[in-house]
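User: Show me sequence and structure for the first protein, then do the same for the second.

Assistant: Starting with the first protein.
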Amino acid sequence: MATSWCLKCIVEEVQGPTQARTRKSRFISGHAHPGSPYVFGLVGVDHDLDFPEPMPVVGISRSASGYCINLVLETMKTYSSEDGLTEEAIVAKLRTCRCHHLFLHASLRNNSSGTCRWGEFGEGGLLWGECSARQFEWFEGNPVNDLLLKVKELYGLDDEVTFRNVTVSSENRPQPLTLGTATQIGAIPTDGIPCLLKVLLPSNCSGLPVLYIRDLLLNPPAYEIASAIQETCKLMSNVTCSIPEFTCVSSAKLVKLLEQREANHIEFCRIKNVLDEILNMYKNSELSEILKLLMDPTWVATGLKIDFETLVSSGIWLFGLFSYKLILLGKKQ
């Protein structure tokens, strides 16, 4: 059935007629929605379904330093915050970030005119126009902690569930692109303006790489991170050995399927392939330097800080674990 928020799918399986009178078996295999777009029941079959990336729950507030946006991903149990944004910058983020639910903090209502009528005298009018076209809910209290409580209530999570802070400091980082600039260069889809990414990237490039490049354009990284990405590209263009395929796997999808014990051998093979590529790069003198350079850009993209040696040692252990698991699955089949 369709609602104003999302599409909901409930699957019921009923055992067919048999000679002996047996009790019918019924179960609900999944409740898929934009915040958790996964349908279960694939663990025992050879199917591989593509799922869209889960949408975050977004909270917007205001402080003395500017506007603040908080993003919470229930699937990954993570949240991130970005403060000190201008009104144009936060509108640009809203237009490029599809959210499952939008929460507006009461601090947005308090403007310099001393009233609680948001948008009066033009202040906050651009953001209000963007938010008023969406469904949203007001909330009070701490902009981060109370938003996490809203998320737990929304997804029916226990109070003991914790969320990991993956915020990357914006210190020494350029300001995000303004709404006007992002629109003019085609980084934000706009009628009559060609999409910049379609010009920059090959026609067969889609999915996670496109999202990553778009995020770099809209939110330029710090100089050190940008230099590491640039140096990586230079080295990759001059290597004499073969370069790994760089398997693109949605981390949110893997986490959800592993957490629910729904991952089948297809997902295990993908994880094993990623680990194999990392270990092959580590063993190759040319590619090892590229792998080291990718550590900090990966940290900025994922919020997960890990040192090079830990990555390699953990990769070796996990590679053996998944190889053993795939051998067991092969014997069962």
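Switching to the second protein now.
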Amino acid sequence: MKHLLRHRTPSRIRSRTTSHPTDEIPLLLSSILQDPAIALPALRKVHAKLLRHGLQAHAALSKKISSLYISFDEIDAARRVFDSSPNPSSFICNILIRAYSKTGNHGDSLRLYSTMVTRKGLLPDKYTFPFALNSCAALCELRIGKLVHQHSVCFGCGSDLFVNAALVDMYAKCGEAQMKRLQKIPGAEQDRC
């Protein structure tokens, strides 16, 4: 009986209820979508709390907040999360490229793609290329499209079905329908060019 009383002292109860911001933010994020009427204002509050406590470098939280902002069509807010993160993930970059492409902001999509391939730590993958190629097709940017094609091969995604479908679409829309079927690019046999 004494051991039960010892565990219920006020100091032990208080220490359990006091939490660090990183403990409560995921709980707040998971509850945001339960009430759509308050979801966006609640998300903004959680994001402000994240910034107040200097947690913008927390990769998992940044991913979740960016995804939620994009689900509310708040692409600019998601971009601010990306820009404020010292080490943004390829995931956040991909969802932004996709969002820009789907909303017709093809120039922004390609600028972010360019940032991705030139910034250390951000690697394009099979989720990146279809949306970058879609933006190339929409803008009839054959030169950039060919560069994205080369990157897709260099990064090992040249045989992906969705990448190939986007390539065929891009070449057709840019007037290169007669191009030989998605030839390998010379010198692109390496894992990374």
